[in-house]
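User: tokens in, sequence out, please.
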């Protein structure tokens, strides 16, 4: 799907992914000391808003202008102390420019791209990390095609934890977690790719850290 396809999808309904943050984002990041975060492919901003409510200064980036506009409207409804921590950018995860200081956290949640584009986006995400920063990658696992429900049905945009590690080999990141995780779909109705009706989805979860300099 290109940016126009995503614009059309976001324009067709309110809160395509729901308002609640992804369960793995909550599990992995609850209790972390807030800093500066980048949410790549942020969509309507559910994860970025959750982070901002917990003290993070968050930049949410998406290549759908409609998604960014919706995130900005949602932000306008938030308390000032949360809204002031949110910045939205219409940009491409594969080619965006990041500040020299980098981010303490880069989140890539359900960015499902063909391998070449995924690799470009993940390497760009890794390059955006500040010393000591965390890269959290969450997506639909390749095995979800046969073992899970929902999500894209095109194997070309699915991947595994090993794929993520291979994409980022040589980038100086330490692996904290790289695994398949099972997500009850009813607990996270807004996951990208659709597919409601209950059941269990198979996700990939990779958490990496850059060493402190």
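Assistant: Sequence out:
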């Amino acid at each position: 799907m290109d940016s126009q396809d995503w614009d059309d999808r976001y324009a067709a309904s309110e809160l395509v992914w729901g308002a609640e943050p992804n369960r793995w984002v909550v599990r992995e990041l609850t209790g972390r000391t807030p800093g500066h975060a980048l949410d790549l492919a942020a969509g309507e901003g559910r994860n970025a808003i959750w982070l901002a409510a917990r003290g993070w200064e968050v930049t949410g980036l998406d290549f759908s202008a409609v998604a960014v506009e919706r995130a900005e409207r949602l932000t306008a409804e938030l308390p000032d102390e949360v809204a002031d921590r949110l910045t939205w950018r219409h940009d491409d995860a594969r080619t965006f420019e990041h500040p020299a200081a980098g981010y303490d956290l880069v989140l890539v949640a359900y960015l499902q791209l063909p391998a070449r584009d995924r690799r470009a986006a993940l390497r760009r995400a890794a390059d955006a990390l500040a010393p000591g920063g965390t890269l959290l990658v969450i997506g639909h696992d390749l095995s979800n095609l046969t073992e899970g429900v929902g999500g894209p049905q095109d194997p070309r945009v699915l991947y595994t934890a090993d794929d993520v590690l291979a994409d980022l080999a040589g980038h100086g990141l330490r692996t904290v977690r790289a695994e398949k995780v099972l997500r009850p779909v009813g607990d996270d109705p807004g996951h990208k790719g659709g597919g409601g009706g209950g059941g269990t989805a198979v996700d990939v979860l990779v958490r990496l850290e850059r060493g402190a300099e």
